[in-house]
UniProtKB/TrEMBL annotation:
Residue ranges of domain Endonuclease GajA/Old nuclease/RecF-like AAA in the record: 3-308
Protein name: SMC domain protein
Domain of life from the UniProt record: Bacteria
Keywords, ordered alphabetically: Coiled coil
Coiled coil spans: 195-232, 259-309
A GO BP annotation: DNA synthesis involved in DNA repair
Claim: Transmembrane is one of the keywords in the record: no
């Protein structure tokens, strides 16, 4: 069961002369009064008694008092905590009469409970980190958020490249009349040379025919002398005529035109290839972008599942993008009552054995907010001791000039002796 404050007795601390207070076990106990009457001194005293020397006021002893501070707090389990004497030595006595020290107090006193405004004034991300730590998912969430950020950064880079590739592809011209592959000038030249060689061979054969015809003419003139030779020549002539009969020269005009146009053709082919390559690159980077989007969504889902499965202090409390969110609102948009609820619930979660919190300067909250917060504290079985610059009915007690208004100066009602300085 969580520890609460049953009774506190304070003398000669800061502005406090002598007060005795029995706060409500559950709900909100408001210490009211005008400024500079000792309200905050009550909270500082509680923090000092339970939190140790790091909460000790720099000028703990009340001005104009020769008696050192004297503080005593009785906890709900019977534990008695005292600081008194010249050095304000700590004395902790448990219900069985055994004594302890600050370490015993540290086991059930949460530091933020002694200074809740410190928690409330921290940044939203700091609050979220505290909550993640106490629900035990901080390290896992850091890993998932790192993974999420890596996926996001990689996807962002890939997306930019994909956009650049798509833009480049759209800007490239495309020629439908260009062939699919680059044209080779050497192949065209070789074909041209082959045709020219064939034409040269044809020319040689024609020249041979002409020579034979001339020879025949000469032989006809010398028929008598060359009769025998004439028959041989006529035989060769018949063969030559057969060879030359079906010869047909091929035109190189098309190849010559292709050779002259090859640079333009190849320019178009290269442009088409560049456009196709850019489109292929864009599709690939878009595929990578979509894959990274899927991985990013999976990382975010894993993070959300981790947070949803964690045991949070409040049902509608969550963490989104590294910040606290309650009832769908971030810290700066929460109502004053919701801020108090969230802070108190987180502090309780930090140390479930600590059933109380201290709150200073609640004059910033209107009466409706205070009422709502008080009802919530009671429903949760929590105790809050707060100060407020007010003397209204909402105040549980009023501090005037270092005393509780309407309270006799002797702190211990069961003592019959008159009030003496430095003695409870």
């Amino acid at each position: 069961m969580s520890m609460k404050i049953n009774q506190l007795e304070i003398e000669n601390v800061k502005r406090i002369k002598a007060v005795k207070i029995e706060p409500s076990a559950n709900g909100l106990t408001i210490i009211g009064g005008r400024n500079n009457q000792g309200k905050t001194s009550v909270l500082d005293s509680i923090a000092w008694v339970l939190g140790g020397d790091k909460f000790r006021p720099s000028q703990a002893q009340r001005d104009q008092s020769v008696i050192p501070p004297n503080l005593r707090i009785t906890m709900s389990n019977g534990l008695v905590v005292e600081r008194k004497g010249k050095n304000s030595a700590l004395k902790v006595t448990d219900p069985n009469g055994e004594k302890g020290g600050q370490q015993l107090l540290n086991d059930f006193v949460e530091q933020f409970a002694l200074n809740l405004p410190r928690f409330m004034e921290s940044t939203s991300k700091e609050k979220a980190q505290i909550l993640l730590k106490i629900i035990g998912v901080g390290d896992k969430l850091v890993t998932l958020e790192k993974e999420e950020q890596e996926h996001y950064n990689e996807r962002l880079a890939i997306g930019r490249i994909a956009d650049q590739k798509e833009k480049y592809a759209k800007e490239q011209p495309y020629y439908n009349d260009a062939p699919a592959e680059l044209v080779s000038a050497s192949e065209l030249i070789k074909k041209q040379q082959d045709i020219l060689a064939q034409n040269g061979e044809n020319r040689r054969k024609r020249e041979r025919l002409h020579q034979l015809e001339q020879e025949d003419q000469r032989l006809m003139e010398q028929i008598q002398e060359l009769l025998k030779k004439q028959e041989t020549v006529r035989a060769d002539l018949a063969i030559a005529r057969m060879d030359a009969k079906d010869l047909e020269d091929q035109s190189t005009a098309e190849l010559e035109q292709s050779i002259s146009d090859i640079e333009e053709i190849n320019r178009k082919v290269r442009a088409n290839l560049d456009k196709e390559k850019a489109e292929d690159d864009a599709r690939e980077y878009r595929r990578q972008y979509d894959q990274l989007s899927k991985q990013l969504d999976e990382a975010r889902d894993a993070k959300n599942k981790l947070l949803n499965s964690a045991e949070l202090p409040l049902s509608e409390l969550s963490i989104k993008e590294g910040e606290l969110v309650y009832k769908g609102q971030q810290w700066d948009n929460m109502s004053g009552s919701d801020r108090l609820k969230v802070s108190t619930a987180i502090v309780r979660k930090l140390n479930p054995e600590c059933g109380f919190v201290l709150l200073d300067k609640l004059e910033q909250m209107d009466l409706e907010v205070l009422k709502e917060f008080g009802e919530w504290l009671e429903s949760e079985g929590l105790q809050a001791i707060a100060t407020r610059v007010s003397t209204g009915e909402e105040c549980s007690i009023i501090i005037e000039d270092g005393y509780v208004a309407g309270q006799e100066h002797p702190l211990m009602e069961d003592k019959k002796t008159e009030w003496k300085k430095g003695v409870f």
